[in-house]
Design brief:
Layout (H helix, E strand, L loop, with lengths): L10 H16 L5 H15 L5 E7 L4 E9 L5 E3 L3 H9 L3 E3 L17 E9 L2 E10 L7 H15 L3
Helix pairs in contact: 1-2, 1-4
Length: 160
């Protein structure tokens, strides 16, 4: 059903295709872990030049805890306000970082990561967690990626 060769259109066309695929994967399933797992796998398949795609989920101790992901083993807990993920969660806003080594307080889980985008998952005003995507290239993520990843998160939170 899914393979990289199907993404042969423009970037916008490919993002529209992956949104349809995400809806198809989530349709009828309400289990949060299953849906987050499939979403991270789909994004890892779809996005090129990335080395980590996954989720950090809000824990009762006002920190993010590692959720479903694709990539190398990662940091397990991130306090709100710390690193790119904690900053995104605390500010409830997407954070796009061109060079993670220039980001104050960056938490280096994978030494290969050079750029990062983090999108908060907010449902009915409640912060559920964040989508975190790392790349081994500087300046990997642009406004188009941000716009469509925010759309993908909006689809995902309907099923969480």
């Amino acid at each position: 059903m899914f393979n990289v060769e199907m993404y042969t259109g423009s970037r916008v066309e490919n993002y529209h295709l992956v949104k349809k695929q995400l809806r198809a994967l989530l349709e009828g399933e309400q289990n949060k872990i299953a849906n987050l797992s499939n979403a991270s796998a789909l994004l890892n398949l779809f996005l090129d030049r990335v080395n980590w795609v996954g989720f950090y989920l809000m824990d009762t101790n006002d920190e993010l805890v590692l959720g479903p992901f694709q990539g190398l083993p990662a940091c397990v807990r991130i306090p709100l306000g710390k690193g790119v993920c904690g900053t995104s969660a605390q500010n409830r806003a997407t954070v796009r970082v061109e060079d993670v080594h220039q980001f104050p307080g960056h938490i280096a889980c994978d030494a290969a990561s050079q750029s990062e985008i983090v999108v908060p998952l907010i449902k009915n005003g409640e912060l559920l967690g964040v989508l975190d995507i790392d790349s081994p290239e500087k300046n990997r993520f642009d406004e188009l990626d941000q716009e469509h990843l925010e759309d993908l998160v909006s689809i995902l939170i309907e099923y969480l």
